[in-house]
Amino acid sequence: MSGHESTYVPKTGVEKWLDTRLPIVRFGADYLALPTPKNLNYWYTFGAILSICLVTQIATGIFLAMHYQPNTAMAFASVERIMRDVNGGWLIRYVHANGASMFFVAVYIHMLRGLYYGSYKAPREMIWILGCIIFFLMIATAFLGYVLPWGQMSYWGAEVITNLIGAIPLIGEPVLIWLRGGPAIDNATLNRFFSLHYLLPFVIFGVVVLHLWALHTAGQNNPVGILIPKEREKKDMVPFHPYYTVKDGFALLIFLMMFSWFVFFMPNALGHADNYIPANPLVTPAHIVPEWYMLPFYAILRAVPDKFGGVVAMFGAIGVLFILPWLDTSKVRSMRYRPTMKIFYMLFVLNGLILGWCGGQLPDAQVVPGMPSFTLIDGQLNSYLWLTRLATLYYFAFFFVILPFVGLRETPLKIPASISEPVLSGPDAMSGAVPAQAEKKG
Hints:
One of its GO terms (biological process) is respiratory electron transport chain. The chain has 442 residues and is an all-alpha fold. Helices cover 60% and strands 2% of the residues.
């Protein structure tokens, strides 16, 4: 795919003039004509969905910034004024707030698809690493945005997370003072968070461009997980347009219908009711909890009794994603042909849901009656914490133990010789399949 030659021919004088100076039309035409594996399923449409989500967040964020006041005395009231007095303000704010949740829904599915089909393996390591950088920047941007409405959960969420940074030895305290703009959360903090929240989406956009550049250089993966040689491109590939523009468009339409349902019928379902109470440093909420998409990492943070250890575990849960291409020892990309690893993958997805559920529970909740516990809180058994630690253990074991060990020990199924032959020739085509062990790595 990286060797795809341009087929664009300028037709008008304006096109010829522009093509010799800024070949942006050629770039767009070549992108639409790009050879793409013909067997991509709907799990591969979330890249386009994420692009629309990012543009939506940037556009609505710019309009909201025109009316928002980054001042502790006026921030909460300015958000309410946007909702009540600005023309269309309620729609822009709900699209932006729910758009963050839709963004994370799409990115989690996108990452899980990449994990299942081995899209992080050579020669696509840089695509995966850039995707992880985007994910980390998304988390940072979402946290900063969560503080801006200046409700109770906004203020106390900022208090908890910034205090965690202060737990880092040597550099923690100076970084904490710089981030807050002083010894406590105040106007300087809100101004800093607003500035960074406005800036980071454009940084994300820049990394997305690099992500797409890396994708076009290394080539698109496919559900079978085989590399397509030049001589098979005509049989195994189709132009991106119209085949995948239509497919992506249909998937985007379905996604926007779900998005619209939340915006118009359940706009506050994914938020927290306490954030409609103005921030009060003197009143601590009964349960300080982040947005739902951060709950798995919040659960990992609380699973470790030591404060600094919890911070290391939380950031380590994200950091391990960066080295994933070197942890997986299997030469087979797609888990379609790895029956043992597929079972552990399903357990990993379930484990992520359990971590998210645990992150939303009260720290002293008795949520699993009859389950044994390792911890006493106020003299009571804490079975929730037992479950959280077990799920945290599996999370890290999946990357550091299961992926390397299973990749060396399992016997994969046979991989088809090409994308087209199994479909066009029926079951007999599998006679030309190659053993998984013989597939070249990369």
